[in-house]
Every structure is written in C-alpha cells, then in structure tokens.
Amino acid sequence: MRSAWSDEDARAAIAQHVERNDVSASRCNEDIALRVYSSRLIGREPGLVLHGGGNTSVKTTLRDDLGDAVEVLCVKGSGWDLASIEPPGFPAIRLRELLRLRELDALSDEDMVNAARTRLLDASSPNPSVETLLHAFLPHKYVDHSHADAILAIVDQEREHAEALCRALFGELELAIVPYIMPGFALAKLAAERHDEHAKRRGRCHGLVLLQHGLFTFGATAREAYERHVAAVTRAEQHIATRHAAALRAPPSARPRTTGSRATPSFAPVVRGRLGGDFVLHLRRSPAIRDFVDDPALAQLSQRGPVTPDHVIRTKQRPMILDVPEGATLEARARAVDGALASYRAAYRSYFKDQVAAKGVTRRELDPDPRVLLIPGVGLAGVGANEQAARVAADLYEHTITVIRDAEAVGRYRALPDGDIFDMEYWSLEQAKLGRGSPRALEGRVVYISGAAGGIGLATARAFAARGAHLYLVDRDGERLAEAAARVGGPCEWAAVDLRDRAAVADSVEAAVRRFGGLDGLVSNAGTAPQGMIADCPPQVLEDSLAINLLAHQWLAQAATRVLAAQGRGGFLLFNASKAAFNPGAGFGPYAVAKAALVALMKQYALEGGALKIRSNAVNADRVRTNLLPPDFVAQRARARGLSPEAYFRSNLLAQEVTAEHVAEAFVHLALAPSTTGAVLTVDGGNIAAAPR
Ligand SMILES: [Zn+2]
Question: Residue 636: which domain range?
Fold first, then answer.
C-alpha cells in the first residue's frame, strides 16, 4: 500500500474547511481540517476500512461558548463514514475530564456514552465513536484506527503465532501488542497500559496491533499517524505476498472447479421467498469469490467465524452454505433451500441459547436468518432488509474471503470464540449502529414498472420508491427513461425494452431478479392510444394496439408470475387499464377493445393466481395530462364538448383535475390492500357511465 498523502491536497483541505470558513471558526481549525483530510485517505481505501468502519481522532484546542480555550478530543461521530467525513463528523469532547475517567476501575457502556455526551462542546453533535476513550487515553495528537484486511490476516491466528508474527513484522515499527477484549472501557484502559509499557521500555510507541481486531497508529501530525498506518499495513501485505509465493498457489482462475458455472440465479427467488423478512439479495461472482465457494474446503474455512467482531451485526456469525443441485427441478431446489435454512436457523438458535445460558444474561433474540449465502457454482449473495444492507454484507464478505485466504497463507485462520462474537452481536452500542426505525410500507419489496418514462409511470415509480420499494423500470425510450430513473430516488435499475418482444420481456424480468434477488409486484403500465372508427380500422392499427395494450401485459404478467410462484410468498399484478374498458368512446375502438380484454386478463390472473396469494387488480384512469395523446387531441375533444381544455380536465363528478400522482397513489393502495383481488379502481374524478359493474 502506498501513501496517498499530498501536501497540496492537505493545504486545499485547510483552505476549504478553515479559511473559507464553511463551518463556524469555533468548530474547526487547521488540526481538524487535516484530520478530515487524512481520515478520507484512509476511508477511501477499501483494504483499510469498509462502510463506516474504523475511526480517527485529533486532540486540539477550541473555544467554548464563553470564549475560553478548551483542550478537546475530536473523534469520529457515529453515522459518519471516513471516506466522506466533514468537520461536523468529529464531535469535540472536553479532553481533561475524559482523561480523569482512566482513574475509575470500571464504567458501564451506558455510563461511557453518557460521560462522552455530557462533555461535548456542542450538544447537537452525533454520539462519539464507541472507541472514544481508547483514543482519549493515548497521549498522541493524531490517532488512526482501522480493521485493515492485511492486518487481520496477521492477527486472526492462534494467539502465540499471532504475537510472534506481530513481533517479527511490527517490532521495529514500535507497535505494541494488545490481546483481544471487546471494545469499551476495559479495552481503552488495557490499550493505554500496553502503550505506556512499550513507551517506557523502548522510549517510544507508534501504534497498537489489537489481536483479532485491528490496528491503531499515532503521530504528532496527521501525516505521521497516517504514514505509520500505511507502513504497518505494507509490512503485513509484503509478508502475505511472500507466503503466497512460497506456497506456489495457483492463481484462482486456473484452479479446477468442483461444479460448473450456472449463469441463471434461479435459486434466488426460491431463497428469498423462504427467508423470514422482506429481504433483498445482492449477488456477487468475481473469480476470487468463485474460487472460494467452489473450494472443497469451503465448509471448514467459512464456518470459523467473522474476521473482526465489528462485522457480526451485518454478516451474522457465520455465512450459510447453499448447495443447490445443478439442473434441479423447482421442487428439488426448494427442498435444498429448506434443508439448508432449517439447519442454519437451528444452529443460530442454539448459539443464542447457549450463550445466554453461559453468561447468565437476558437478551432479545435477533432473527435467525443468514446475511451471507455462499453458493457453490454461483457465487455469494448478501442478504439485507434493503439493497444497501445487502451490499454491505456482500462487501464485508468479499473482504472476509481475502482475509481468510491470506491468514491461511501465513498460518491458520482463527476467529474469536462464539462467546466473544455474541458479546459484540448483542452489544447495545453495536445494535444502535443499525439504527432501526419503523420500516416503510414497501421497504425492500421489488417492483417492476413498465412505461416508466411516461407521466403516470414516473409518478408511480416515485410513489413506490417513497415507500421504500426497489424498482426495475422499463420503457421503450431509453433516453427518457434514463432521465426519469434519475428522478426516482432509492435503489432503481432501468432498461429500454420493447414489450412486444416476448423474449426481451422475460429477459428483463430475469434481470430484475438478478439485481434484487426476486420480485414482489408488477405495475404493467405501458400503453398507446390508437384511434380510428372500428369498422374501417386498418388491420395494422388494431394489431399494434393488441400487441402493446393487451399481449405485452400478458408477456409481463406471465414472466412475473413465474418468479412469484418460485418465491412462494404471493405478490401483486397491477394493470393500467382504462375507463374505455367499460365506457368506450366513438373513434377509440382499437384502444377500447384491447383495454376491455386487459380487464379480462386481470380477472383471469386474479382467478388463477389466488391459490398462490398473487393478487391481480387494475386501475382505470381518465383524462390525465400525459403525452400519450397527440398535442391537438385534448383541444379537439374539449371543443367537441363546448369546453375549454382546462374545463375538459375538470368535467367529472368531483369537478377536479386527475393527476398522474393520483393514479400512482391508486397503484400503491392496491399494492398494499391485502384482501383485494380482481378489482378495478377508478381514478377519474367520478364518471358514472364508466363505473365498474
Ligand atoms: Zn475497531
């Protein structure tokens, strides 16, 4: 690893944060600006920290509200990521009072949080890191902490071997060794003791290697602390590289596979449907991942535990191995998944029961489902309540694979015993990091929306995204769809698809499954509005209308139903029909005929999908301003009724214009109505002639 320090960038950081004064002067100075700068250098390197991992601090002087100069510890606040941290991400705590805490024999986690919070300069600051006291007790201006992959490979060994390796590799870097104890007051005191002993004996101490945990380095300047970090990681990396070379291990891609590659993630909906909550799956299949999941030693390598206890709240203590027989039928796949899940859950429950009994504590058991799936022949899947959580689990496990491989090259990979993992998993300060609010109505549900670049489609996409849904958007117009997708917000994938092409439709549903692991609903919205008197309608006009306004809905509903059935947890099909299905207008035959058939299609799916808990419903909207119709069309229709265009849009029972957002809300209501199927919901401001009967 090379130092990324640049004096020019460091000066720019000072200019940005101090001289241009983007934060009030009482909250930022040069020390803090440089702290921000080098924290970001660490944060942007995935081999050092991932997803909010690691923490850094600086000891400096700020003025309090009385104008008095106060010595403070500015340490990373919870909820901030080192890669993008700003000065407010470093809450300032009165240092002298923190240091006095070292005199105490013990301090509970709650009291430790309280001790830091009550000494903040700014009461609105985020909670300082759970490792605040460790930073405070080290007598150095800048302190950098990471769970670097290469360091973990060295410290995740049997204790004697880890200590011998650390002495050999880091002795001349003046790093002291700290045995594993859980973060908290006791670790802060132990780390400070180890530091003091080393400094006394050697005249200096530049950092700490924490067995089974990670690395701390210090310095008088931001650059010194950072470059000592880089130096330690580099030493570890060099040693690992030498050991890999000595083992003459063939590169991953050249090794034989135990199973062939399976391109279709056909197992995904089967798994997703059987997990306890509304989970999203995120699939990965790099050569290193494939090499790991196809390794004959997978079972014993992967079941030893996490590489650093910090991961456990996001990955669970062990991944689940899912061996799905190749070419198996849906039933056989389902049986394999059921078997694997049943034993995973049983193992998790007994781990919980054993630990609670052994420690004599009471805890509320977390859900027993895996967060990482290892699938021989396929790759790995992260599991999470939403795509972000699933990605985090996958990222952490990708790095876990690197650490396990490297640890095996320098010795034998060893994780902490279950007792220590349990303490971390059920530690209130760790669980608080997950920030559980009440989930949104459609959090983590996957919804496919067609015609998403149009007015109603885009409004519908936004309405579902606002409820937490993950979206797969299609439209025939890729350019407009890209613009629309950018306005949706939330996890969203899009593709230009010609819905008349049955194979392309099936592929796009498969792509949605690949992206999110399954599907929960379809809003089949795309349509056209052809006109013409039915008696002399050119065949092509009617055929085109049937192709898009009827058959395309069928291709989509068919492909979606296949996934919903494999998932086995129900779902919804929503069709954008039209009032023309019940109340046709003269000159609109090619449209009305197809839409009437679409309502019949909706009912057929309601009838046949009920047994699978698949609900099928339609929305009949009318007079919504969209660009489906030619520009002069509304003016003509209005004139024919002796109305102005504005009055035309309000000529309904409620005398109010119907908007695309109203239609979108109707789709959301139907998606959330658990006992409604086979229904047509009108969104037309009231039109008795078009009321369903
Ligand atoms: Zn840590």
Answer: 626-657
286 CA from centroid of ligand 1 (Å): 28
Flag the least confident range among 103-117, 156-170, 512-526. Answer: 103-117
* 435 pLDDT more than 70: no
What would the pLDDT profile of 202-216 be if each residue is shown by its tens digit?
Answer: 999 999 999 999 999
Q: How far is the CA of 147 from the centre of ligand 1 (A)?
A: 6
> Is 591 a residue of the active site?
yes
In a domain, 251, yes or no: no
Give distance in angstroms: CA of 170 to centre of ligand 1.
19
Cα–Cα distance, 483 to 167 (Å, whole number): 57
In a domain, 598, yes or no: yes
- Does some domain include residue 255? no
Residue 625's pLDDT is what?
84
For residue 180, the CA-to-ligand 1 centroid distance in Å is 11
State the DSSP code for 275: S
Burial class (CB in 10 A: 0-12, 13-18, 19+), 283: buried
pLDDT band, residue 257 (cuts 50/70/90): very low
Looking at 434, 455, 478, the residue that finishes a domain is 434
Nearest Cα to 484, choosing from 454, 510, 446? 454
Report pTM. Answer: 0.87
- φ and ψ of 69, to 5 deg: -75, 130
In a domain, 273, yes or no: yes
For residue 210, report the distance from its CA to the centre of ligand 1, in Å.
9
Residue 391 shares a structural domain with residue 427: yes
What is the share, in percent, of the chain residues with pLDDT greater than 90? 76
Q: Which phi and psi angles does 427 have, rounded to 5°?
A: -75, 125
Q: Could you tell me if 52 and 89 lie in one domain?
A: yes
Say if residue 255's pLDDT is above 90. Answer: no
Residue with tokens 């998790």: 348
State residue 635's pLDDT score.
Answer: 82
Domain count, the chain: 4
Annotated catalytic residue within 37, 142, 426, 591: 591
Task: DSSP for 23-42, please give it.
Answer: S-TTT--HHHHHHHHHHHHH
Buried b (16+ CB within 10 A) or exposed e, 56-69: bbbbbebeeeeeee
Separation of 48 CA from ligand 1 center, angstroms? 11
Cβ-Cβ contacts under 8 Å for 144 (sequence gap 6 or more): 38, 39, 42, 54, 56, 216, 217, 218, 225, 226, 228, 229
Cβ neighbours, 10 Å, residue 672: 13
